[in-house]
Design brief:
single chain, about 280 residues, alpha/beta, 8-stranded mixed sheet, two-stranded antiparallel ribbon, 10 helices
């Protein structure tokens, strides 16, 4: 469970999709003056140097964020996301990829708060050091994010966005995310919840979206990005999906404009594509 290190995958196609949606959600919540909390169940190390040994080993960012980096013709939502990544990179070169907490913080206001959970003993040390100057605005806990999420809901301002994105290295993670979201909707039905999951040939991954659609949320949005045809041997991740419970009304139109561009930029073969669907009560 603790072998996963996101540094190996920072800035890949899955990060691009996940963080494109995340920036849209935090920016929308920041439209109202009232404060909100951002809760990250698997916060990672906070920020990733793309020339580090971990990131350079696979170089996955080269088929992800790097393909968008120099573009001046991106749709509004994609351009907004890339601009936030650019704020972590003084100068013109792409050297650092900000993790989910960094991206959230960059789009939040002084009155908003971050509650970050990370179980990996090394990554949590990096995370604490990365945010040590933020004081009580950013609280980092070395603990299980699923348990931490229960502890903070409902948040004091009664406004929150929670990101749930485990590594799915263990089969039980598929069960845990469904149960966690059920619990979230009971504790705080008005919150916004973003779940990321991998597209794999395994049955658990294939069945997850259907299970999420049956959750008792007032509304949901589901977007997927497939970058290649699934491998004949069933090995590897060919895409990923993001499922949002209680999404803002603006999100679908923003993604409808962005996703065709994303497929064209990140697609690796003729199997590349996207889906976008939503439901409101």
């Amino acid at each position: 469970m603790l072998s996963y290190r996101h540094a190996f995958h920072a800035g890949n196609h899955a990060d691009v999709l996940k963080h494109l949606v995340l920036v849209q959600l935090t920016r929308y919540l920041a439209r109202k003056d009232k404060a909100f909390w951002y809760v990250d169940t698997h916060a990672g190390a906070g920020s990733y140097a793309l020339d580090s040994a971990h990131a350079a080993k696979l170089g996955e960012h080269r088929a992800g964020i790097a393909r968008l980096w120099g573009r001046k013709d991106l749709p509004a939502a994609l351009a907004e996301y890339v601009d936030v990544v650019r704020s972590s990179n003084p100068g013109s070169a792409l050297k650092v990829y900000p993790g989910s907490p960094d991206l959230a913080l960059a789009t939040m206001r002084a009155q908003d708060r971050l509650r970050l959970f990370e179980l990996h003993s090394r990554d949590v040390l990096h995370l604490r050091k990365h945010f040590e100057g933020e004081g009580k605005r950013v609280i980092v806990e070395h603990s299980d994010g699923f348990a931490g999420l229960k502890a903070v809901l409902p948040p004091p301002p009664r406004r929150a966005l929670a990101l749930i994105d485990p590594a799915y290295e263990e089969k039980q993670d598929y069960e845990r995310v469904v149960h966690a979201l059920k619990d979230c909707l009971q504790r705080f039905p008005g919150g916004t919840y973003q779940l990321w999951y991998p597209q794999l040939t395994r049955l658990d991954a294939h069945e997850l979206p259907g299970r999420l659609k049956r959750l008792p949320a007032s509304s949901w949005l589901h977007v997927t990005l497939r970058v290649r045809t699934p491998a004949a041997d069933g090995f590897g991740m060919h895409g990923s999906g993001v499922f949002v419970l209680n999404p803002p009304w603006t999100l679908q139109a923003s993604l409808q404009a962005a996703m065709p561009c994303l497929v064209a930029a990140l697609g690796l073969d003729a199997g590349a594509g996207y889906t976008l669907e939503s439901q409101a009560s």
